[in-house]
């Protein structure tokens, strides 16, 4: 189990404990939203990483953009950075993260400097 899943599972345990202790609903809802966002980022990174195993163009584009080697950690960081830039505009951020296209920006032509 990687560090990201450990963090997700720790947050799940914390939420369960707070629910058992009948903690503030506001705090529990905030932590549940945080959990959904972390899961969305993790699942999106996993999906992109798997896609890169099947499509070497993604890996080449990743290196071309100087994002590092094609490791799960680097892909996770890329997805995280993309997710942070998403403007929710009143929508559920986790849903937007899940539905965001992370491959297209990698496969689009690199602008000349």
Q: What is this entry, summarized?
A:
The chain has 113 residues and is mainly alpha-helical. It is built from 6 helices and no strands. It starts with a helix and ends in a 6-residue tail after the last helix.
Write a structural description.
The protein is mainly alpha-helical and 113 residues long. The protein has one domain. It contains six helices and no strands. α1 packs antiparallel against α2 and α2 packs across α4. It is elongated and about 50 Å long.
Please tag this protein with its features:
single chain, 113 residues, mainly alpha, 73% helix
Number of domains: 1
Main sheet specs: none
Number of helices: 6
Low-confidence stretches: none
Q: Given the C-alpha coordinates, what overall shape results? A: elongated
Percent of residues in β-strands: under 5%
Separation, N- and C-terminal Cα atoms:
40 Å
* Classification by helices and strands: mainly alpha
Order of helices and strands: HHHHHH
Q: What is the averaged pLDDT score?
A: 93
What is the β-strand count?
Answer: 0
Helix content: over 70%
Determine Rg (CA atoms, Å).
16 Å
């Amino acid at each position: 189990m990687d560090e990201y899943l450990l963090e997700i599972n720790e947050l799940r345990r914390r939420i369960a404990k707070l629910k058992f202790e009948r903690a503030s609903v506001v705090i529990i809802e905030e932590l549940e939203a945080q959990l959904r966002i972390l899961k969305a980022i993790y699942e999106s990174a996993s999906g992109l990483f798997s896609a890169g195993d099947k499509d070497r163009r993604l890996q080449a584009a990743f290196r071309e953009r100087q994002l590092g080697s094609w490791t799960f950690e680097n892909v996770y960081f890329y997805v995280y950075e993309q997710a942070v830039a998403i403007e929710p505009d009143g929508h559920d951020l986790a849903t937007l993260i899940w539905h965001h296209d992370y491959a297209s920006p990698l496969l689009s032509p690199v602008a000349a400097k």
